[in-house]
Write a structure and sequence with these properties.
Largest sheet: 7 strands, mixed
Distance between the termini: 7 Å
Keywords: Signal
Protein name: Extracellular solute-binding protein
Number of helices: 19
CATH topology of the largest domain: D-Maltodextrin-Binding Protein, domain 2
InterPro entries: Bact_solute-bd_prot1, SBP
Organism: Bifidobacterium pullorum subsp. saeculare
Helix content: 40-55%
Length: about 425
């Protein structure tokens, strides 16, 4: 692993030196024409249209620039990006970045551009808070486009049908909600465990509630999980499985692809709840019969756990951010500044039905469920990144796999910890 990082870094440096010798950089030609590629994860609907329109708008103002947009399925993006970044000649110039250790790894490999001194004043001021999540050792390496606190998204109509008048705030209340939904013949929770990470989200959140803030922070940095709270998180997941609360066939259900995905089950009122990030309203919207916002979609924070030592206001989530390859032309950075202006942040929020990273643009959020999540986010004392993002590709995959194995009856709460620590030890 160490050799690969050094080799990749050397390749990136050699490429940049070669570009500098040519006197242009990126894919700039002698005639001043510049071409660069953007990889994003919006393959359908208004999200894909946003990126296509943004590229067209930029090219209209910069006749010498050609932008190639490539939409890659979210679940495939990390693997393809990891492979592509090993060769700057085939790697994208601008790409979706999840942050955490995943971003740190490509920073260490010299594959991403330091944007600290290249950001517009708009980005620096309107996105000051969000930029902290993309800052490593005091330097900024990505530009956030949205803030996506997670939580539980639910159908208000199905809750009402089951006689549920208030959303749960504690685990005991949540169990009661699950039982009422089951009694009404309604599938309580949609889960797309085929993609692994949605299943692991339950473990992430239980850990956030079970572990004290100090333990949580120290363990996620040291990658040592000796405190019993981490094992209790797995035991909590097992209790949830024992409730038989998930959709039938959840282990082979995808998260976001089509009407039969977990998001599709919520969108079509075939399940009442889904634990997911702040992008969920937009995904659900694209899977409703009329491709419009789900009218009865609501949101509530993940419940507290009896005896848990975690901060009850703490949230978990992430950001949609875009990074720039170390080899990219300056126009690629200019494009990021261009789409980070308030008007484009507002367009982004509407296209993805999400919370924009720019505070000045957040007033455009109209979706009631998103407003509810924004209110919870505003009161949170801390927000942790998704643990698979925080831990990086290899350790994160081991964690997600361990949770799915336990859900499939092939492992235990202790096995999850063993798998994570083993992957971390390999580096």
């Amino acid at each position: 692993m160490r050799f690969k990082r050094i080799a990749a870094s050397a390749l990136a440096v050699a490429t940049m030196v070669g570009m500098a010798a040519c006197g242009s950089g990126g894919d700039a030609n002698a005639d001043g024409k510049v071409e660069f590629t953007v990889w994003h994860n919006s393959t359908t609907g208004d999200g894909k249209k946003f990126w296509d329109d943004a590229a067209a708008d930029y090219m209209k103002e910069h006749s010498n620039v050609t932008i190639k947009m490539e939409a890659i399925q979210n679940e495939d993006l990390d693997g393809k990006l990891q492979t592509a970044l090993q060769d700057p000649d085939s790697a994208p110039d601008v790409f979706f970045a999840r942050g955490g250790q995943k971003l740190q790894d490509i920073i260490d490999a010299g594959q991403v551009m330091d944007l600290t001194d290249k950001l517009s004043d708009t980005v620096k001021t309107q996105m000051a808070t969000a930029l902290k999540g993309e800052t490593f050792d005091g330097r900024v390496y990505a530009v956030p486009q949205s803030v996506e606190p997670g939580g539980i998204w639910y159908s208000k109509d199905l809750f009402a049908k089951a006689g549920i008048t208030e959303t749960p705030t504690t685990w005991d209340e949540f169990v009661q909600v699950v039982q009422k939904l089951k009694d009404a013949g309604i599938t309580p929770i949609a889960l797309g465990a085929k993609d692994a990470w949605p299943a692991a989200h339950w473990w992430y959140w239980f850990a956030l509630r079970e572990c004290s803030s100090d333990t949580f922070d120290k363990s996620t940095k040291s990658m040592k999980f000796t405190d019993a709270c981490w094992t209790r998180a797995g035991e909590d997941v097992q209790k949830l499985i024992d409730l038989d609360a998930f959709n039938k066939g959840f282990l082979t259900t995808p998260a976001q692809q089509g009407a039969s995905s977990s998001a599709g089950l919520v969108a079509n009122h075939m399940a009442a709840m889904e634990l997911m990030g702040g992008w969920d309203p937009g995904v659900i919207r694209d899977l409703t019969p009329d491709k419009k916002d789900m009218a009865d979609l609501g949101y509530f924070a993940f419940p507290t756990v009896d005896g848990g030592e975690g901060d009850p206001t703490a949230v978990m989530g992430g950001m949609n951010a875009m990074a720039v390859g170390a080899w990219a032309p300056e126009e690629a950075v200019d494009f990021l500044n261009f789409i980070s202006e308030k008007d484009y942040q507002e367009k982004y929020a509407k296209a993805f039905s999400t919370i924009p990273a720019s505070k000045d643009a957040q007033e455009v959020v109209e979706n009631p469920a998103l407003k509810e999540s924004l209110a919870v986010y505003g009161k949170a004392k801390s927000m942790s990144l998704w643990l698979d993002t925080l831990f990086g590709q290899n350790v994160g995959n081991a964690l997600n796999e361990g949770v799915v194995n336990m859900m499939a009856g092939k492992g235990s709460a202790e096995d999850i910890i063993k798998g994570v620590e083993s992957a971390a030890a390999k580096g």
